[in-house]
């Protein structure tokens, strides 16, 4: 239904709609996962079209699953530039902000400046490796190949942000740290679930219980969300050191 609505709103502007993230990689948990989408258009969108899209997203997200979506312009992303620009973005973290801007009229200034997102380096890398075309042109050559150094910068920055919130979002931090570790160790592009499994077989044995607990919650096998904070901090310190040492090599 969302794809149909996007096609109706964007009409001839639409180049393609693409799925990445956990749903594309086969580890979607309907109770906690987002549906991750990238949309590519031929030209930048007017603020009036963006307003129409945002009203649709506010209605669709969470019915039944939260949506995280970025709209990109074809000739702004390919050939590659850094940092990558985006034309419009929505996630549930932005819901209140978007509702406020629609109500107070500041949506009319959405095109006043160009905005960028370093996370797009990771999203597009994953999309090219394991994404799904929902509508339109194929993934390559629509999306450029991301230089490895920028992909690494993106996942490390995401790790550092997750580290700051690890006490309240422990599952994401632990499993995301494991998949960052998997990439730095062996260039593996993994989902959070796959990263956790990799961590179980490669990280020190003292962290097996921590990772297993995170995986059980992520897979819907446990509702117990309390973690041993001392062990969580020890895990974070281990990962911090590993990343620092890796960056020195």
Automatic annotation (TrEMBL):
Keywords: Antibiotic resistance, Transferase. It comes from Dictyobacter halimunensis. The keyword Glycosyltransferase does not apply. Residues 143-240 form the Adenylyltransferase AadA C-terminal domain. It catalyses: spectinomycin + ATP = 9-O-adenylylspectinomycin + diphosphate. Transmembrane segments: none annotated. Residues 6-59 form the Polymerase nucleotidyl transferase domain. This is Streptomycin 3''-adenylyltransferase. InterPro entries: AadA/Aad9, AadA_C, NT_sf, Polymerase_NTP_transf_dom. It holds the Pfam family NTP_transf_2. It comes from the Bacteria.
